Amino acid sequence: MGLPPKRGDLILYSVLAVIFLASCAASGLLLFTARGGSDLVLEAVLDGKVVESVDMKSLKDESTIEIRAGGGINVLAAGPGGVKMISADCRGGDCLRMPAIDSNGDVIVCLPHRLIVRVRSRGPAKASPIDSMTY
Amino acid sequence: MIMGTERKRLSSTGRLFLIPLCSALAIVTGVAESWFPLPFPGMRLGIANVFHLLALILSGPGSAVAVTALRLSLSFFLSGNVFSLACSTAGLMLSLPVSVILYVRYGASLSIPAISAASAFAFNIGQVAAVVVLTGEPTIAAYLPLLLAAAAVTGFAVGKLAETLARRLRQALFIR
């Protein structure tokens, strides 16, 4: 069934494999440079402005945070694995399926409400203090 | 036998039914597959792309662009989601040229599943770029390898499906 692969296929698949590996390297770099840091803070960012900021240590299991964003309401809940979006009245519900966040650099995005919930470090980053000053 | 670019295309009457038919089928499958649960947000099966490829194979780049434009605009009217429109547009701006150029220029030495996989790659890269720009949060790009891995599989499968459908339709419609 079906047609056999053609002679150019291997070249194209190799190009795709290279792009894939490059994206793996890039995402590894993104995730690793963001890791670490102390005094983690949970920030809710609406249209590029921080509207809510909570110390991660002050969050206890099952405590919830309500955020009004983009004409709707998003509800976050703290749990054993980190903070998760538990309710959102947007159409897609994509944010509800995003994994719980607990370390520096983690994000949950609710695109329809233009809301980003992220974990940031307030303390000095170990690797590069200059970045944390100018950020 | 399907041999790249040097084959006869549909008549203008054929095109008249193929473009709306492919657009309608693409929109319906697009809505249907959005109900299909997938582990990661932004991941799609992309079955709707079968019809874009079908238009490209049976009728040429013009029809493929028409089908894509119709599907994009009509899907937006159905969902009303501006952000998914922005993401899809960014993805299609990359994936449409990739599939058309690969098929038209290198169609003789590339199979449809390979072209489809490349096009799926391009779509996901465009989409992630749009999300990063819209949110200003570069960490989201870390999702890209996951999406690309899925795109390789679904893109290939979609290409295989389009290839088979095109061959069957060619026989049924007596286009040789």
Give the tags.
heterodimer; A: 135 residues; alpha+beta; four-stranded antiparallel β-sheet; three-stranded antiparallel β-sheet; elongated; B: mainly alpha; Arp2/3 complex 21 kDa subunit ARPC3; globular
Model description:
- The complex is a heterodimer of chains A (135) and B (176).
- Chain A is 24% helix and 34% strand.
- Chain A is an alpha+beta fold and 135 residues long.
- Chain A has a 4-stranded antiparallel beta sheet, with no helix packed on it. A 3-stranded antiparallel beta sheet of chain A has the order 3-4-5, with no helix packed on it.
- In chain A, strand 1 and strand 2 (49-55) form a beta hairpin.
- The longest helix of chain A is centred in the first third of the chain and has 26 residues, at 9-34.
- The relative contact order of chain A is 0.17.
- The model of chain A is unreliable at 125-135 (pLDDT under 50).
- Chain B is an all-alpha fold and 176 residues long.
- In chain B, helix 1 runs parallel beside helix 3 and helix 4 (82-106) packs antiparallel against helix 5.
- The N and C termini of chain B lie close together (8 Å).
- The A-B interface holds A 1-9, 12-13, 15-16, 19-20, 23-24, 26-27, 30-31, 34, 45, 48, 91-92, 94-95, 97-98, 105-107, 109, 111-112, 114, 116, 118 and B 2, 39-42, 79, 81, 83-84, 87, 102, 106, 108-115, 117-118, 121, 125, 131, 134-145, 148-149, 152, 160, 163-164, 167.
Span between termini of chain B: 8 Å
- How many domains is the backbone of chain B divided into? 1
Share of residues in strands of chain B: under 5%
Order of helices and strands of chain A: HEEEEEEEH
Instruction: Report the structural category of chain B.
Output: mainly alpha
CA-atom Rg of chain B in angstroms: 16 Å
Mean pLDDT score of chain A: 78
Percent strand of chain A: 25-35%
- Could you tell me the number of beta strands of chain A? 7
Report low-confidence residues of chain A grouped into runs of 5 or more: 125-135
CATH class of chain B: Mainly Alpha
Residue share in helices of chain B?
A: over 70%
| CATH superfamily grouping of the largest domain in chain A | N-utilization substance G protein NusG, insert domain
Q: How would you characterize the largest beta sheet of chain A?
A: 4 strands, antiparallel
Number of strands of chain B: 0
